[in-house]
């Protein structure tokens, strides 16, 4: 930095004489300057830091902490965990005649297959216990229950022992044995389905899908970066930052798994988010550095200006994304804790790398960053020029903001409207329709319509052996037996001592099918009326209700209750951050309203497609008529944060031009056309990365991928190109309004005249813009 570029401020020295004192450059600039001067230390230090984190993660290894449901279900699950109780997974082996008219009683092949399945499972005690067959002697009523009403289907049931996290692996020998028997009977359908086998199928499907996603994401991103930059070396720099950020965050996540539950899909979410933001931040920095070099600045000065402008925007954007992701901690949903930490870590690492290693690399490489040019692309892409198309659109919008903005707003509101009818639900099993396990479970449900699994009432305390406890259990059993068909709870109520007598699990059958309104009402009645009138009168005990119906209801209720809290937390903190960053009361309001509109459009899109069952053949899914409960809130925090990338970058360019004396409308046109190339490129790459999620074979990842990709595309086109300039044009100079009582905020607003050290504006103004005033010249804009 030359001395002429540093503003000189008066300083009163000894004796009252004023001495000149140089103002310190902003922190982002100072960090970039240090990295540029010590480039080898910065680059190799970064690589060493990444290597240390990776080695530490590998050395300590990961640990699988249990994840609990929300509410009472989670309390009951934690009590069972403390008691050392492991709920076995229940598996069904379906034996069904392919041809109509054949029955289990009259078909020797079906009975022989059942005997062989029972014998094979009995030889695998580590994979199957509690085997029940319709051929077991002395169990007449139970055996009849294992044969369908039409006699065409029969079940052999068993349990998979061991902890829940190991059951998907433990069931594999049983699956192989059943598959071998099925191969001997082509005239029968013999298949296995259940908790453990469906978990194993989901792991297999997801594992293969994520491996393909990991293998696809890097090449696709590299190709797009080559198209963006037209040079191999420049294209490799963002990829290097993104990959090192992802590897570091995943290693930190491995260390964190010793204290927090980290789900199996957390690493894939971190990969997708890390690739998206790592590429975005690098693009912002690289394109600005190229722009300044094209304007005639040397490498060191171009890096400094890029740090003062794009670097500052990266900090604001990264903090906004991390604030949004931190909202996941407020949900009370255990799985979100690991996702929140991992994604915050990868975003923070990408920001840190953008501010340190990027300036060092660019200073080191200099013009060499443009080497390895691709024919045709290289000549066209190496110079970062304003976009004529986006500039023309922006000029039309600011000339007629009401018409353009009104049409765009109506279109997005129309797209968002279906979200008003969004239904939250859960598929019976989230597997592709053609998966053998899913097919078997569907056939079992059709052949053996059954009531939901009983609610589990976990009772602990010192009064378990008291007469009052025995009377309460008896009263509960009597109430269930006397309730009749209309009762919410049914007999028989079972009582099973667990944990060496330190706890009791009561099994209470509920009305309904487990997921309908009758089951939900039965659960509420059990919790609010039946149990308080029985167990609630026993001193020295505590109880909590869990089970399939309870866990789904509690998780949905927790998400519903947390949504306003998370939205309020994210919006308020983002507003405060943008208020400080732009020293404007209006800019944060515009940004937040437009971000919420983008999120609403994304909600409408997934409702139209996945709830209403459109594009099932094209996308490859089967609609269950709803949206999975965790997706809307997760989409909100991701989209709100990621959408700020573009808003902050564009607004920073507009603010920069406004600070140089341009009118607000002129700054809007110049800022949008000047940032169009990098924003469009970043959006295309982010949409491509998110679209990879849509290729995965289960509904929740498809929904998330389509929703994120669609919302980012909308945000980077309609919102960025039309709604933002329309809103700012209508507000005019009020965009920079800051009340006097907020004048204590740090920094300078656009109406001030920032120094070159802080503004970092290129020496060549865009066509049609006025020349930049000197650091001492007053701005032409009104104060405030």
Features:
25 helices; four-stranded antiparallel sheet; 784 residues; alpha+beta; 61% helix
Provide a descriptive summary of the structure in words:
The chain is α+β, with helices and mostly antiparallel strands and about 775 residues long. The chain is about 60% helix and about 10% strand. The protein has 25 helices and 12 strands. The chain has helices spanning about 25-35, 40-60, 70-80, 110-120, 140-145, 165-170, 170-185, 195-230, 230-255, 265-295, 300-325, 335-365, 375-380, 390-400, 400-415, 435-445, 465-480, 515-535, 550-580, 585-610, 615-620, 630-660, 665-695, 700-730, 755-760, and strands spanning about 10, 20, 90-95, 130, 155-160, 190-195, 425, 455-460, 495-500, 505-510, 540-545, 625-630. The strands form 4 sheets. The protein has a 4-stranded antiparallel β-sheet, with helices on both faces. The longest helix has about 35 residues, at about 195-230. The two termini are about 30 Å apart.
In short:
The protein is built from 25 helices and 12 strands. The chain is α+β, with helices and mostly antiparallel strands.
> What profile does the largest beta sheet have?
4 strands, antiparallel
Distance between the termini: 30 Å
Q: What Rg do the Cα atoms give? A: 32 Å
Structural class: alpha+beta
Give the tally of β-strands: 12
Percent helix range: 55-70%
Tell me the β content: 5-15%
How is this fold's topology laid out?
Layout: E1 8-12, E2 18-22, H1 27-37, H2 39-60, H3 71-82, E3 89-97, H4 108-122, E4 129-132, H5 140-145, E5 153-160, H6 164-170, H7 172-184, E6 188-194, H8 195-229, H9 232-256, H10 266-294, H11 299-326, H12 334-365, H13 377-381, H14 388-399, H15 401-416, E7 424-425, H16 436-447, E8 455-461, H17 467-482, E9 494-498, E10 503-508, H18 517-533, E11 541-546, H19 548-582, H20 586-611, H21 616-619, E12 627-628, H22 631-659, H23 664-694, H24 699-731, H25 756-759
Parallel strand pairs: 7-12
Antiparallel strand pairs: 1-2, 3-5, 3-6, 4-5, 8-10, 8-11, 9-10
Helix pairs in contact: 1-2, 1-11, 1-12, 2-9, 2-12, 3-19, 4-7, 6-8, 8-9, 8-10, 8-23, 9-10, 9-12, 10-11, 10-12, 10-23, 11-12, 11-19, 11-22, 14-15, 14-23, 14-24, 15-20, 15-24, 19-20, 19-22, 20-22, 20-24, 22-23, 22-24, 23-24
């Amino acid at each position: 930095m030359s001395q002429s570029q540093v503003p000189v401020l008066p300083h009163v020295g000894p004796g009252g004489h004023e001495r000149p004192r140089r103002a310190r450059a902003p922190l982002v600039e100072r960090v970039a300057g240090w990295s540029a001067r010590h480039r080898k230390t910065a680059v190799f230090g970064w690589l060493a830091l990444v290597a240390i984190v990776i080695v530490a993660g590998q050395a300590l290894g990961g640990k699988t902490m249990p994840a609990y449901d929300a509410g009472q279900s989670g309390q009951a699950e934690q009590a069972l965990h403390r008691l050392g109780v492991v709920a076995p997974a229940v598996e069904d082996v379906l034996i069904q005649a392919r041809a109509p008219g054949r029955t289990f009683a009259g078909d020797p092949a079906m009975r022989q297959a059942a005997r062989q399945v029972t014998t094979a499972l009995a030889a695998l005690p580590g994979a199957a216990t509690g085997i029940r067959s319709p051929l077991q002697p002395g169990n007449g009523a139970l055996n009849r229950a294992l044969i369908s009403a039409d006699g065409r289907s029969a079940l052999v049931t068993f349990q998979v022992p061991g902890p829940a996290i190991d059951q998907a692996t433990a069931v594999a020998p049983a699956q192989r044995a059943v598959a071998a028997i099925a191969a001997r009977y082509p005239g029968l359908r013999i298949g296995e389905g259940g908790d453990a086998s469906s978990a194993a199928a989901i792991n297999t499907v997801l594992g293969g899908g994520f491996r393909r996603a990991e293998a696809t994401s890097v090449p696709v991103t590299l190709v797009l970066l080559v198209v963006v930059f037209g040079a191999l070396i420049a294209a490799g720099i963002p990829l290097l930052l993104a990959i090192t950020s992802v590897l570091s965050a995943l290693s930190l996540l491995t260390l964190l798994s010793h204290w927090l539950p980290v789900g199996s899909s957390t690493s894939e979410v971190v990969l997708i988010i890390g690739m998206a933001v790592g590429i975005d931040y690098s693009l912002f920095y690289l394109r600005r550095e190229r722009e300044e070099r094209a304007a005639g600045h040397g490498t060191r000065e171009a890096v400094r200006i890029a740090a003062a402008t794009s670097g500052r925007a990266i900090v604001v954007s990264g903090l906004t994304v991390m604030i949004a992701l931190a909202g996941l901690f407020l949900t009370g949903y255990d799985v979100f804790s690991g996702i929140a930490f991992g994604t915050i870590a990868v975003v923070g690492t990408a920001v840190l790398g953008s501010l340190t290693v990027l300036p060092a690399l660019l200073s080191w490489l200099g013009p060499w960053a443009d080497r390895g040019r691709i024919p045709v692309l290289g000549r066209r892409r190496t110079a970062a020029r304003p976009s004529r198309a986006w500039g023309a659109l922006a000029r039309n919008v600011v000339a007629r903001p009401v018409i353009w903005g009104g049409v765009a707003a109506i279109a997005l509101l129309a797209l968002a409207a279906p979200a008003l009818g969004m239904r939250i639900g859960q598929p019976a099993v989230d597997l592709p329709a053609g998966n053998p396990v899913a097919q078997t479970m569907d056939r079992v449900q059709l052949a053996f319509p059954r009531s939901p699994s009983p609610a589990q009432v976990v009772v602990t305390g010192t009064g378990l052996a008291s007469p009052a406890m025995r009377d309460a259990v008896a009263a509960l059993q009597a109430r269930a037996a006397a309730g009749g068909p209309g009762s919410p709870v049914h007999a028989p109520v079972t009582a099973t001592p667990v944990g060496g007598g330190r706890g009791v699990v009561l099994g209470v059958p509920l009305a309904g099918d487990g997921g309908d309104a009758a089951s939900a009402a039965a659960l509420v009645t059990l919790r609010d009326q039946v149990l308080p009138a029985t167990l609630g009168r026993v001193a020295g005990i505590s109880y909590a209700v869990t089970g399939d119906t309870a866990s789904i209801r509690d998780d949905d209720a927790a998400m519903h209750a947390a949504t306003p809290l998370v939205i309020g937390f994210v919006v308020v903190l983002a507003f405060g951050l943008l208020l400080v960053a732009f020293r404007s009361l209006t800019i944060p309001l515009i940004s937040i309203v437009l971000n919420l509109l983008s999120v609403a459009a994304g909600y409408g899109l997934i409702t139209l497609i996945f709830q209403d069952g459109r594009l099932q053949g094209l996308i490859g899914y089967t609609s269950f008529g709803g949206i999975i409960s965790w997706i809307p809130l997760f989409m909100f925090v991701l989209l709100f944060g990621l959408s700020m990338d573009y808003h902050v970058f564009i607004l920073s360019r507009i603010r920069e031009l406004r600070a140089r004396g341009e009118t607000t409308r002129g700054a809007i046109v110049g800022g949008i056309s000047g940032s169009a190339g990098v924003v469009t490129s970043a959006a295309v790459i982010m949409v491509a990365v998110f679209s990879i999620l849509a290729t995965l074979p289960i509904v929740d990842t498809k929904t998330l991928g389509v929703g994120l990709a669609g919302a980012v595309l909308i945000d980077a086109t309609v919102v960025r190109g039309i709604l933002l300039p329309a809103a700012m044009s209508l507000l005019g100079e009020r965009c920079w309004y800051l009340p006097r009582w907020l004048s204590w905020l740090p920094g300078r607003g656009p109406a001030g005249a920032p120094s070159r050290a802080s503004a970092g504006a290129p020496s060549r103004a865009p066509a049609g813009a006025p020349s930049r005033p000197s650091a001492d010249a007053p701005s032409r804009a009104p104060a405030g």
